């Protein structure tokens, strides 16, 4: 058994299984992206999560005759059939994307049925350990520049070196012009391929911590470690997400004292963050559409000179991506273009050398407006369900997912998908108390003579 936080415990295999799923969630390289990509070698990283999931199912009986699961799968089956019929998507690549779509939904269902509400403290517990490892290795890289020789002995990734899937050391010499440092300070990419992606994983862990504890720092080392790790990513997405998350949890109700606290504490923090040099540069650059389009023209001109058609070069900025994703939606408003970006209007008519990064509109672009609306309703229901189950803010998960989606596509990524579908697939079992509630339970136990374990039986 592995102890998580206070009353939460989990069996060792289940902990190891979820740890592996978090590593796949980080998508540090092509191997750990095998749960969302296409069917192709190498096969070991593809079959590893499948084998582990089969063992998990053998240890935890899960019923698949759930009407909720059947309805969701049937909805996507109808959408897939219509898309194939309309777009004539009949090839092995398309079949691969369809396979991983259903695969991710079924895996999410299994996670929710097996782990239930314990998924939150479990994910937080694992992320805190990964952040400790990342902070240690990042500190070595920052304090001792000579450690570059050591890090360069590990396998190469798109932006640096992969240290046993636990940390990516970012290398300016191999980053292809990506911003891996600010003011001479190396950014912390943690266990993911780049800092911004790591920051949204930390955001989700911070949400899990606040669902349990609220805004609490004294004795809450998990929160402190997560915040320090988030700061070292130097990610605008992460900083804005954390500011929004703390603001949501700070407002228990529209009371004068809470409004004053917001003005005195949150507003100055937000102002100071916006005044940081790298934040100003990134925000100004993202908001300047002229700059975005000029850089796009320059990049495409370069691509036309040195690259072959449809050879992948990179990703567009999030605001440029939003602009072109709107065009995609205009051309395929009902069914979308499917999971294969290569079938989008942008890829086929404008450029096949880039991918659009903004996930917030990509949901509508890929799945069409009707199904996209349904997916966002499901996300909102999941956010509200977690809020009820943990006696906490019902809008918080929805808010940080929207912020994360401005820069990344996370819908069918392991763990992210499980949180997305929590409100649909959750078990109707006992509610996990917050730490404040636990203190009340302890007092009740003293009065009644019952043990704390008899008072609360977490799922």
Give me some keywords for this one:
disordered C terminus; 8 strands; two-stranded antiparallel ribbon; 459 residues; 4% strand; mainly alpha
Structure commentary:
The chain has 459 residues and is mainly alpha-helical. Helices cover 63% and strands 4% of the residues. It is built from 20 helices and 8 strands. The protein has a two-stranded antiparallel ribbon with strand order 1-2. A two-stranded antiparallel sheet has the order 3-4. Helix 1 (12-26) packs antiparallel against helix 2 and helix 7 (195-213) runs antiparallel to helix 8. The model is unreliable at 298-312 and 429-459 (pLDDT under 50).
Structure summary, number of beta strands: 8
Structural class: mainly alpha
- Largest pleated sheet: 2 strands, antiparallel
> Could you tell me the mean pLDDT?
82
Strand content: under 5%
Strand order of the largest sheet: 1-2
Helix fraction?
55-70%
Q: What overall geometry do the principal axes of the alpha carbons give?
A: globular
Contiguous runs where pLDDT drops below 50 for at least 5 residues: 298-312, 429-459
Task: Please work out how many helical segments DSSP would assign.
Answer: 20
Determine the N-to-C terminus distance. 15 Å
* Rounded Rg: 22 Å
Order of helices and strands: EEHHHHHHEEEEHHHHHHEHHEHHHHHH
